[in-house]
Amino acid sequence: MHTFDSLLASITPTTGPTRDIYDPATGAVVGSAPVHTVDDLETAVVAAVDAQTAWAALGHAGRSEVMLRAADAIDAAAEPLAELLSREQGKPLNGPNARFEVGGASAWLRTAAATPLEPEVVVDDGETFASIHYRPIGVVGAIGPWNWPMMISIWQIAPALRMGNAVVVKPSEYTPLSVLALVAVMNQVLPAGLLTVVSGGRDVGAALSTHPAIGKVMFTGSTATGKAIIRSSADTVKRLTLELGGNDAGIVLPDADPQAIAEGLFWGAFINTGQTCAALKRLYVHDDIYEEVCTALTAFAAAVPMGIGLDENNVLGPLQNKAQFDIVADLVDKAKASGARVLLGGTPDADQPGYFYPTTLIADIDPLNPLVVEEQFGPALPIIRYTDLDEVIALANGVDVGLGGSVWSADVATAREVAARLETGTVWINSHGGVHPMIPFGGAKQSGYGLEFGVEGLKALGTPQVING
User: Fold this and answer.
1) What's phi and psi for 441, nearest 5 deg?
2) 196, 266: one domain
3) Which of 74, 239, 289, 304 has the highest local Cβ count within 10 Å?
4) Which residue among the candidates 88, 173, 243, 375 is catalytic per the annotation?
5) pTM higher than 0.85, yes or no?
């Protein structure tokens, strides 16, 4: 049975260079992470190639059985994993945060293991018979972010393993300990060499995206880095799944009930303190109910506690790093300077340790203000007034990204009609940002390409082969 100390000890290097990882809430040292090199990546890829053949030979049923035991191992270590995640990433233990994320990692692993993917007959007319099968790619490179380090790593790892691939994971330099610990727990069950973490810098990420033995790269992160991966992977024609930046819009129609939607709006925007790619980042509210929505949302937001994640009372935490804190602070300052109305927050406490930015709501803001058109990735939500539906849909679509969006209305049929006009990979009705392991998820425009989750997610981790005859 793991304790926090034993879990941390199991991933603390005994040789080689290390660097300290700090708690974004307190500044305290959480632990030491290895500083892996391109040579370490090469060692991991060689081991992955060696392990992959036998893993693929187990077949779907055999691999699923091992994956379910790996999920059991995660469940058995859930509490120390959650504590480590809270200390390193900053998110609180409770609410839709650290314990939720660890549980989600286990759930996604189980779903990938249990989801059937049978050969698909595409023609069978008595003269011609053709079917599609999905074969392992080989070695998959998984590059993850710092906002949901365990959950998103599993989104990459689980379908890759299920389809018979080996995986080399490159975690964010901000949150390597969480991913190292998650993989260490899984490797109590998995065959040696099949799943490896290479905790290095940008040079390691660049080498992973060009390595000739890696057949696919999965990446979740910024659009700029995604474009760099596209370019660097071109010479080896790697398969790619890219989940990139977003600036999700929510549109509240005039028939919505402000009190009824306030909680959903809040969590759509502020889950993980706003540090979520598919969070609600721009809220457009019809003039008829604008003030009522502002009042209801402000009342709800003011009552949600923010603080150190290990305090069981808190459900909002700090921003994970100073760079992100500075981005949010700059965008809010620009909004305030423009004359926008601050409903809540907007001024961090200079005497408070850690990267805490208060829950912030900004009303009466110009639709072209930087806080609206740029992704803030933090706890600051602009609320834009509108009167014309066609104009607000044009504003919602008027950015170069399209990960998610939402429509809020008492009339679901009308909401779906509006949803169909949004240029996004997902549109939610009367909620925002929820994901399900069987519902495909992916972006439009410069939010990336490729689908994750469910059967489509499994297919994306296989090489399709048509057998004709």
Assistant:
1) -140, 130
2) no
3) 74
4) 243
5) yes
